[in-house]
Amino acid sequence: MTKEFLTGLGLTEEVIAKIQEESGKDIEREKAKYSDRDTLKQNLADATKELEAFKALKPEDLQKQIAELSEKLKTQEADSAKRIAEMETQAKVKDYLSEKKFVNSITRDAIAGKLAEALNGNESKGKSLDDIFGGLIKDQKNILLDENKPSPPTVPSMTQTGADRKDDDVARTREIMGLPPLK
Questions:
Q1: Which residue from 85, 100, 94, 95 is spatially nearest to 144, judged by alpha carbons?
Q2: What are 62-113's pLDDT values in tens digits?
């Protein structure tokens, strides 16, 4: 209905305004009923696309992908188990060697590596760490510190305290350079 149509019926401006206001409310109420129409239409289109994508999938491809992922998972599990076993072996070796006094850290690290390698090998199955360690250092010299070995003699000048020695060195150096002594 247009305003001209209502004016043609002989209605006053006030009545026409009230009719148009009520008509506007009715129109908005009807629009609200269908407001989600576009959203529903888009959802239907999206679902149709997804369905078409599923139609394109072949069960053989899915089974192949599942098999590949399963193999990858098995490989990762095996790698993880191997790393865990290596870490446990290293911890066991470190704990065992903690009581030993080696001549230096290089020797300790080398023996630790060989001991870990021997633990993982088949030839060490059923042997204790003491047996394996004994086999590694057998007939080897300068591996462990010999606590019964006498210590080397000390020279008296080497036992001077740091402060006394430093002062003597500075004074002697200044004398050689022809500088006056420090006060």
A1: 100
A2: 888 899 999 999 999 988 988 898 888 888 888 988 888 888 888 889 989 9
Q: Dihedral through CA 104, CA 132, CA 147, CA 144, nearest 10?
A: -20
Q: How confident is the model at residue 161 (pLDDT cuts 50, 70, 90)?
A: low
CA dist 137 → 57, 85, 114, 117, 130 (Å):
64, 25, 10, 14, 11
Strand ranges, E, within 9-159: none
How many residues can be counted in the chain?
A: 183
**Residue 78 is inside which H or E element, if any?**
helix 59-97
Identify the residue whose tokens are 């009520």. Answer: 22
Closest CA to 92 of 58, 129, 147, 122: 129
Residue 56 to residue 53: CA distance in whole angstroms: 5
- Check residue 155 and report its DSSP letter: -
What 3-state DSSP class applies to 151?
Answer: coil
Run of H or E residues at 181: none
Q: What is the pLDDT of residue 160?
A: 52
Query: How is the chain split into domains, by residue range?
Result: 1-32, 60-137
- The one-letter amino acid code at 167 reads D
